[in-house]
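Exercise: predict the fold of this chain.
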Amino acid sequence: MMGAKMHTTATAVEPQADATHHQVSSRPRGRSRHSEAKAAAFFLAPAVIGFVVFYLVPIVRGFQMSLTDWNLLQDAKWVGFDNYARLLEDDTFINAVKVTVIYVVVNITSQTLLGLLIAMLMMRVSQSTVIRSTLLLPWLVPNVTIAAITLFVLDPTVGLLNHLIGFLEVGPISFYGDSAIAIYTVALVNSWRNMGYTGLLLFAGMQTIPKMIYEAAETEGASTWQTFRHITVPLLRPILVMVIVVSMIGSFQIFDTVSVATSGGPGNSTRVIYLYIYEKAFQQFDMGYASAMAVVLMLALVLLTLFQLKLARSNESDMD
């Protein structure tokens, strides 16, 4: 009888002890999650505040301004969507869009191809830190400085490039002064500036591809072109799409090189949309119309980015 009572008492105590242990162990776990949430909020707060202050509020304010007629000197007058209707009748704006699209296509195509070439050469020829640093030098130089330097290098009278091509009995060529080639010159100059950085990003992506895949392709007798086309490019797609999207957004925002080198000329051959927005806002003080162009540009970039990400399936990896 005594043994039975002791067994019953021990059995009754065990669930109570387990419950107490569960309560004690759950408290630190709950506190830990609360602490992690507080730490996450603390570290995310600067980014969220920066986004709201420097992006969200200006976007909302810019859209409000686009619905008004405001010259900075008088009170804003509500005009609704009249500024957007003006865009369809503005030949200079339409030309600016065409010039910008030409610049983006030339810049993205040449920059990406040159970046891929540099990345492949670094993979196969040299992975030296000195070479990587050298490739980054043009990217570290501000666009304004690049534009000022190329004004002298490409000058039709005293420019170094014209002296060199003079030995081929070609030229002189006014690279920035000829309306037929001025925008292509600006695009290629910026491609030269950014190709090293693009190449390093693609080179970093190539290093994540397992070497055993290349070894298997080499064993099967695949050529360099076949390996690049069927292995490197598909597995590099997430990085490649990211580079193209970021480069495209930056290309649509080109301003400083054009402002310094050509000021939109000759004629309107290099008057890109960002330069036209600046002229309308801060030279002609037509803030409402400039804001309408900025809103249209932002929406176009958002749609292009979403379309490009969906088309390329950048969130999927062929390595899986």
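Check your answer against the key: The longest helix spans residues 2-66.
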